[in-house]
TrEMBL record, chain A:
Residues 424-586 form the Mannosylglycerate hydrolase MGH1-like glycoside hydrolase domain. InterPro entries: 6-hairpin_glycosidase_sf, 6hp_glycosidase-like_sf, GDE_N_bis, MGH1-like_GH. Gene3D superfamilies: 1.50.10.10. One of its GO terms (biological process) is carbohydrate metabolic process. Pfam families: GDE_N_bis, MGH1-like_GH. This is Glycogen debranching enzyme (Alpha-1,6-glucosidase). Residues 10-191 form the Putative glycogen debranching enzyme N-terminal domain.
From TrEMBL, chain B:
It comes from Micromonospora pattaloongensis. Residues 17-105 form the SCP2 domain. The lineage of its organism: Bacteria, Bacillati, Actinomycetota, Actinomycetes, Micromonosporales. This is SCP-2 sterol transfer family protein. Gene3D superfamilies: SCP2 sterol-binding domain.
Length: 699, 126
């Protein structure tokens, strides 16, 4: 990391990453630029006043889609008595717009040369780190008052067009304004950067499609207000909780985007900057987290993923009939099939999570219409589990990529190469059956049975699914249970041997319900043991395992999203204090990030670092981290739909204070939930010594 | 011999009903260019019932490409979404209809079921 301050604004899959003066300059490690649809549309955007760069006095994030920079020319040491200052106000939406204002603070008129250096490499997000070998041709055209930058590879064409509201001298590298500013007066121009993805009839692709109209700033503001108005209102004396709740709702609004393939409705994109696109798993988990707050997100996610459900066998895309997609991309590498994201289906969990979300959505909203509408897709998803998920024909869900060139090795949420390892650090062969996949399969079958019985009038299917689920639970508890260490194995290998690392995956098993009552206590103890629980949250892999590394992406870091589902699972089996402990640790951690939990942070012990160490290349905001405080609120308040009512069973950890959630939407209309701290976390005083003031692991 | 495109569309017309399109309501037109002329295939879909004609009629989704590419889509050698991203094929109107129609296109001829390669090493009844 460079250590420089980066400023990010975003709207769906369009975003800008610049430095704190608003400039975009080439940087190999961090993807700076103006991006849309997985393509960079500006890689250079540098403002100079009389040939000099500028320095930032302050930066205001006005909205998630709008930022204002206050700048002065020259080096930081001699701008004290600057005669000139500059304001850049930037908005993104369907285009990138920058209002540039130069102020003359002198009592004499001033001649100023304002220069914007403009350039672009049209990098695909997948080739940011190495853009030298573009296969197509770049071109630059100076047109009447406009600078047109373009890239063409066969029929594939993208363009950036820069125009200004004031007269400018345009050359191939930028725009120059020569202006005279009267004493104590200012000069201003609007710069407009348009992105073009060439489609039908030589027009922009998005202009030819239904529901792809851009939005103006005022419309975006209105939509944000409406979004915030419709969400439940949080009343609490806990400032950290309040901050993170508000932050989450705004970030979730910012992360919504409208995929090309789906006229007008929006779904959560996964995360800035690398994952501003639809991911099956991330969208499903985020929709589950946000259900009690913004249930519409689940409905659009379910509809969109249904439209793009797999329908055939395709090795390059790891596609099978009934499978829910992993990732959709629009860039050059997807277009030319150098990457398989058109869409890519290499995930073993999304298909089961799809059924789980559909059922959970109905339990909250009572929207039986959608459950009936999506009956075919849900049935295909259930069929996929047995026909294609069960690769070995032994009743478990396995994964093994068929795209051996660029497909994902680990097709579970821990998808880095070394995440699935034995206790001694060795990696198993393929296929692999990770434990949480079996939990999801179990839950999908139980929930699928409810849908079949209550909505699809198919009691035979319901009976079969229930039998399958019971059988799976029994076998799972026999084959995955590590008797001598008293937890569930991370996975099984092809010989049926246990991949015996202790990992956070066992928390998802509690959430799914596949854990037997008598073993739940052992699982909860393992989760809250010092080896897994860092004081902030549960590590992805336990300290002491062969591959453990506190800053290893999936082998030791703490993932907020992971913890929110673990807390939900603990609550499901009655471990209120343990669930509260995780909630408290996460909300405490959020304080260090201004209420915005990152994708992951280091697994260092809380007592050692005192603050959560952000994982170096973590995405932020990231959808399922953004959804984490929401699910934790649900967990702490014990919100559970029961028939036509919402059951509230609060279990707030000490220190959480008073929490009221008003106007929770659902099949009951709107209702309120209140809770007051009650759960005593045992031995808290000793823990403060152990963990530097945070919640303690329960041993 | 009929082209793969003709076989695909006449096959769909003959079947008259597609289980994969049972919720779909709308029309698509494929404008396929070859030898300085354009062939039209018009599909009217109503709850899975599909009527295929070769008329140049308005449609909710208009797809334009060349016959050569479409023949490859019809045999599974090329992929429709990647072709669209590459701008080898263009779409106007309701893209969702094309994405749903894509369900009727075959996968690559070389694709295999994931199971046979790995099956039988460790069975449930070990």
């Amino acid at each position: 990391m460079t250590g420089e301050t980066l400023v990010r604004i975003l709207d769906g899959n369009t975003f800008v990453v610049s430095n704190d003066t608003g400039d975009i300059d080439p940087s190999p490690s961090v993807p700076k630029g103006f991006f849309s649809y997985d393509t960079r549309f500006l890689s250079k955007w540098q403002l100079k006043i009389n040939g000099e760069g500028l320095n930032a006095l302050s930066v205001d994030d006005l909205q998630y889609f709008e930022t204002r920079f206050f700048l002065v020319p020259g080096a930081p040491t001699h701008y004290v008595d600057a005669k000139v200052s500059v304001i850049r106000q930037r908005v993104i939406g369907s285009s990138f717009d920058e209002q540039l204002t130069v102020l003359n603070h002198d009592d004499k008129p001033m001649d100023v040369t304002v220069r914007m250096e403009v350039g672009n490499d049209f990098a695909d997000l997948f080739e940011i780190k190495n853009v030298e070998n573009k296969k197509g041709d770049l071109y630059i055209r100076v047109e009447d008052g406009a600078l047109r930058l373009g890239y063409q590879r066969e029929t594939f064409r993208r363009e950036t067009v820069v125009t200004a509201s004031e007269p400018a001298t345009v050359d191939e590298h930028g725009l120059t304004f020569t202006v005279r500013i009267d004493p104590q007066q200012s000069w201003s121009t609007s710069l407009h950067v348009q992105t073009i993805i060439l489609g039908a009839g030589g027009r922009d692709l998005r202009a030819s499609l239904q529901g792809q109209h851009g939005r103006a700033k005022t419309q975006m503001q209105e939509e944000l207000h409406k979004w915030l108005d419709q969400a439940p209102r949080l009343e609490t004396d806990n400032a950290a909780l309040e901050t993170t709740y508000k932050r989450s709702l705004v970030d979730l609004a910012a992360l919504r985007y409208t995929p090309l393939t789906y006229g007008g409705e929006s779904v959560p994109a996964a995360g800035l900057p690398w994952f501003m696109t639809i991911f099956g798993r991330d969208s499903l988990f985020t929709s589950l987290q946000a259900l009690p707050f913004v249930p519409d997100l689940a409905a659009t996610t379910l509809r969109l993923l249904a439209t793009l459900q797999g329908s055939k066998l395709d090795d390059f895309r790891d596609e099978e009939p009934g499978k829910i997609l992993h990732e959709m991309r629009y860039g050059e590498t997807a277009a030319f099939e150098e990457q398989p994201h058109s869409p890519y289906y290499g995930t073993a969990d999304a298909t089961m999570l799809y059924v789980i979300l559909l059922d959970e959505y109905e339990r909250w909203t009572g929207d039986a219409t959608l459950v009936r509408q999506l009956e075919p897709e849900a049935r295909w998803a259930l069929e996929w589990i047995d026909e294609y998920g069960d690769l070995m024909g032994n009743g478990y869900v396995w994964f093994q990529r068929r795209n051996e060139k660029v497909g994902l090795e680990n097709q579970c949420w821990k998808d880095s190469w070394d995440s699935i390892a034995y206790h001694d650090g060795r990696l198993p062969g393929f296929p692999r059956a990770t434990c949480e996949l079996q939990g999801y399969a179990y839950d999908a079958k139980v929930r699928g049975a409810r849908l079949a019985r209550e909505f699809w009038q198919d009691p035979a299917l319901a009976d079969r699914l229930e039998r399958d689920a019971a059988d799976l639970k029994e076998r799972f508890n026999r084959d995955f249970w590590v008797e001598d260490r008293q937890f569930y194995a991370l996975a099984l290998d092809t010989e049926g041997r246990q991949v015996d690392s202790l990992t956070s995956n066992i928390g998802h098993l509690l959430w799914s319900g596949i854990v037997t009552q008598e073993r739940a206590g052992s699982v909860a103890r393992a989760l809250m043991s010092p080896r897994l629980f860092s004081g902030w949250g549960v590590r992805t892999m336990a300290d002491g395992e062969g591959r453990y590394n506190p800053i290893g992406y999936h082998v030791g870091t703490v993932w907020p999203f992971d913890n929110s589902f673990i807390a939900w699972g603990l609550r499901r089996y009655g471990f209120r204090a343990e669930a509260g402990c995780i909630a408290e640790g996460m909300i405490d951690a959020g304080e260090f990030f201004g209420g915005r939990l990152p994708e992951a942070f280091g697994g260092y012990d809380r007592s050692v670092t005192k603050y959560p160490v952000q994982y170096p290349t973590a995405c932020s905001p990231q959808a399922w981290s953004t959804g984490t405080p929401l699910l934790l609120l649900r967990t702490m308040l014990g919100l559970e739909p029961h028939g036509e009512h919402l059951v509230v069973e609060p279990a707030l950890p000490v220190g959480m204070g008073r929490v009221g959630l008003l106007d929770i939407p659902g099949r009951w209309g709107r209702t309120d939930a209140f809770g007051r701290e009650r759960v005593e976390i045992a031995g808290r005083s000793t823990l403060r010594e152990l963990h530097g003031g945070g919640p303690r692991p329960i041993t | 011999m009929a082209s793969p495109t003709t076989e695909l569309f006449t096959g769909i017309g003959r079947r008259g009903h597609e289980a994969l399109l049972e919720k779909v309501q709308g029309s698509l037109r494929f404008d396929l260019e070859h030898d300085q002329q354009t062939d039209h295939w018009h599909l009217a879909i109503s709850r899975g019932d599909v009527t295929v004609t070769q008329e140049d009629r308005p449609a909710d989704c208009v797809v334009r490409t060349d016959q050569g590419l479409f023949d490859k889509l019809a045999t599974g050698e090329s992929n429709a979404i990647a072709s669209l991203l590459r701008n080898r094929m263009t779409v106007e109107g309701n893209l969702r209809l094309l994405v749903l129609f894509e369900r009727l296109l075959p996968g690559p001829p070389t694709a295999r079921h994931p199971r046979p390669a790995t099956r039988g090493r460790w069975r449930r009844d070990r």
